[in-house]
Write a structure and sequence with these properties.
Blueprint (H helix, E strand, L loop, with lengths): L1 H6 L4 H26 L3 H23 L11 H21 L2 H8 L9
């Protein structure tokens, strides 16, 4: 799974965007859930902006890639893939060293400097 992930996350701009956007998505999604659990709708509304902003940023990053991700196949696929990427795949990509290897692989490639 991480091999295919690296294929669609190899441009420097996209790598940097994900390094910011994924933690934004994760922290604000957790904040949203906790706010709803505590009944604080105003705070939940504010936290709801975070995942939306993170998705827009990541969409921009993916449009910069040579190899775009596979298209979504339906609403359930959208939710599954987004939450899996944010909470599992990208953190594993970073912790396994995949992010750093992808970054270093583009160091001498002027086409991948975006």
């Amino acid at each position: 799974m991480l091999q295919d992930y690296t294929r669609v996350h190899s441009g420097r701009s996209n790598l940097l965007i994900h390094l910011v956007a994924v933690p934004l998505f994760v922290t604000t999604t957790i904040g949203l859930v906790l706010s709803l659990f505590n009944g604080n709708l105003l705070l939940a509304g504010k936290f709801a902006l975070g995942p939306a902003i993170a998705m827009v940023l990541q969409g921009v990053g993916h449009r910069l890639e040579t190899n775009p991700p596979e298209p979504f196949t339906g609403p359930a696929n959208v939710l599954m893939r987004i939450f899996t990427e944010q909470f599992r795949t990208f953190p594993l990509f970073v912790l396994s060293g995949g992010w750093l290897r992808a970054w270093q692989a583009t160091a001498g490639d002027p086409e991948n400097q975006e």
